[in-house]
Amino acid sequence: MEDFPSLRLAPCNDAPVRAERDFVLYWMIANRRTRCNFSLQRAVDWAQHLKKPLVVFEALRIDYPWASRRFHRFVLQGMRDNAAALRQSPILYYPYVESTKNEDHGLFAALAAKACVIVTDDFPCFFLPRMVRAVARRVDVLLEQVDSNGILPMRAADRTFTVAHSFRRFLHHHVRDHLVDFPREDPLQDALIPRGSKKLIAAIQASYPPASSKLLSVASEALDALPLDQTVGDAVMDGGSVAAQQTLDGFLRGRLVRYGEERNSPEADAASGLSPYLHFGHISAHDVFVQLSVRESWNVSQLADKATGSREGWWNMSTDAESFLDELITWREVGYNMCSRETNYDRYQSLPDWAQATLGEHRKDPRPYVYDLAQLENSRTHDELWNAAQTQLFREGRMHNYLRMLWGKKILEWSTTPEEALAAMIHLNNKYAVDGRNPNSYSGIFWCLGRYDRAWGPERKIFGKIRYMSSDNTARKIPVKRYIENYAPNRLFR
Q1: What parts of the chain have a pLDDT lower than 70?
Q2: Predicted model pTM
Q3: Annotation: CATH topology of 1-148
């Protein structure tokens, strides 16, 4: 076996490698791509070592929490791109999509019974960790999980970071070695593995047919037929590695030069737009970093000598590039640090003690407005800017990041308890946002209640010492008139 970054690899059980079996199995659950994927790289290494074919199994359940047409379409577009990328390769790609609940019962066990070793993705959020642990207990073959989430391996940190500054300082101290240990751009390049014959899994596929061509072409009628929440319509963006690369190209060519100054303005369209693709693994942070570095004519020797934890000056790239990297690495990966180390990352009790204390002290403060979940979901508040932000989330599957902070703060202000506010934020974000159900999105939600922040003054009703935001102040800081006009709610109250 080739050397592999040890911090990115973890066995999930004590079962042996069974070299006498038929193939190596890569169970693709989070890194849904064929480029810059440590998991696929590990599976290819196993296939070469054992001289066995490689089966890539990418499945899509029908009953995951908040399952909807929106998310299914996005994932299916990624499966389509993976099928095209692997069509001429020696890999046997097996895309599977449930059409009814529990239709896949017995499928994974049948694959595992033929597998020499199983490799899967190490994603620390949503239902995936529980699913992997459950499977690891049931199979009789080694199951490994691989961290291909970010620039810094999740296991590089020995503690949970509570503020971004300390995580940034830690990152600056430790990331240098990891910048020269990136995944192979094409894990199959020069790989010598036997070509997978369809006969290997023909009997399994006879009982569990692969996704149809209509599904993989994302035909509307095929999506219509699935028992999903069809009220959550298609997102404004397409999914898949092809769309991810197009989005990155557009950002690097046109919007990056405005990122530092204009990313907080919803009318400027300076954001990268990459978070949905990073969430579903259609593009990797490593790939983004490499392409940004090429554009900046940068190499690792240009790093600053001293790790100060400063937002600027350490990478020695342009101001816009450094601002973007702080979001891509610091703020994104501090969320992965939390979710990988704290099982209660999505619970109110995970908030800092000071935040729970101040919110508790103001729990009984009168609320000038109180809205229930249905009113919030349907943008039926008195606040035009908030309604516009929620409408963008409902219609498009995204919300401008600066307005997402305001969105959460106002939900806190308009809910009877902070726990109720948290539940509403999680539900609305996870139901509608394509980049929801992700460590980074939980960071944003919990930031609204004090995570990664400090106590602020003056102390206010309801908020206590939690940082305060208002729509009026936001409108004074950034242009929002056109945004409000574009996203004025026009749907009936459900």
Answers
A1: 491-494
A2: 0.97
A3: Rossmann fold (3.40.50)
